[in-house]
Design a protein that fits this description.
By secondary structure, the protein is mainly alpha-helical. The protein has helices at about 1-20, 30-40, 50-65, 70-95, 100-110, 115-125, 130-140, and strands at about 25-30, 45-50. The chain has two domains: about 25-70, no CATH class; about 70-145, no CATH class. It is built from seven helices and two strands, in the order H-E-H-E-H-H-H-H-H. The relative contact order is 0.07.
Length: about 150
Amino acid sequence: MKDNLLALGTLLGYLLCGLVLVGVNIPIPHPEMIISALFYGDVQPTVITLPPSFLLQLYFVGLFIGAFTSGNLGSYCQQVLYQWDIMIASICHGTKFRSISGIVGQRSAENQLRYKAVEKVINTLFHWEHDHCQRTYHWERSKGLV
């Protein structure tokens, strides 16, 4: 039974992700409808729709908060954010398995001026890791991704 519920949850997650990426507004019950049903027994079917952009923003806020936690949740959130990073780098730079930080580190090492400025911003965001972009570039190079 537990496996069936987990499978159903996974399928619903896939469906919701697909609907959000396609741009479908997601209807949810209005909070007043739930309160009326619980306390007054009066059910007036009303829904509000959440735009996909709001759901994506909520998702990323949750990922960013989760990335700073410890344990499985922190690891999961960090991995998902890293995969988004790789996807965005692939779209913007046409690379395969490279991250934005690694690309910026490489181009900054090649003395491309605009990437030196971007590197400063990214390194500031990752202030707990000294020289984040250069370290990422060298790590990607050691893995044969460059």
